[in-house]
Amino acid sequence: MSDLHSINEAINQRAGRKLLPSIGVGLFLIALVWLSLSTYRFLFAIVVAIAVVLGIRELNRALSAADIHLPLWALTAAGIGLSGATWLGGVSGLAVATAIALPCLLVLQLPRGTENFVKTASASALVLMYLPFLAGFLILLARPYNGLERVMTLVVLVGCNDTFAYLTGVIFGKHPLAPKISPKKTIEGLIGSLIFTVIGGSIAFHYIMGSDWWLGAIAGLVTVFTATAGDLIESALKRDLAIKDMSSLLPGHGGIMDRLDSVLFAAPALWLALEVVRRAQDSGLI
Q1: Can you give the pTM of this predicted structure?
Q2: Boundary of a domain, candidates 143, 160, 186
Q3: How would DSSP label each residue in 215-253?
């Protein structure tokens, strides 16, 4: 028993995370996504909206430490509005809601005067695009009749990327991928995630989506680079703000943003890939 404890502690130290709580939280989140999509799909939009609101609060707290004060309630309302507009109006709803929300946020800065206007307005625009806008693509994936299959395919792709980057990095990692941004990430972890995400994508597209395996392999490649980029961008934000995690809400993961970082960049890429495939099939190209 003590040997298992020692192994677990060594893994935790090497990876910078507590492994068992991380697995438990991950399984709970997957079950929540599946349950919401398999009952009434609009519940998934509510889950996404709640995650967006929590993420906005985390970003507001982190930016406040750097003396950047966001219009929290306005951004919260924008996040809920974008989620609702996306569910009701699809990609057009997301685009129009974003086009309305951005100038409204800028106008709301005016009563504060000109001091730090550019800094606050820029941060507000970043948060709006980074969270509610990108999260809208999760809702776009869930809107069609096969929303469950589409979102669970994303879960498989991002899960393979994160899990096997973690495992291969812990076991084989020697060469840092981006030492100035995220010292724990390694080239070996990236290679491991690339191999297993391509395999996972092929299996998911064949058995979950009922589509060609090679399309899943391509989706796996795209997911590795988009999800890894999302992870590194959030790491860069945290390093610039001198924080380790956005919060301690999710044991083993940190905050909501620490869990959404990969998903936010992978979801638009998968949505676009599925749209291209659908239109190509409709036109008889594939």
Answers
A1: 0.89
A2: 143
A3: HHHHHHHHHHHHHHHHHHHHHHHHHHHT-S-S-SSBTTT
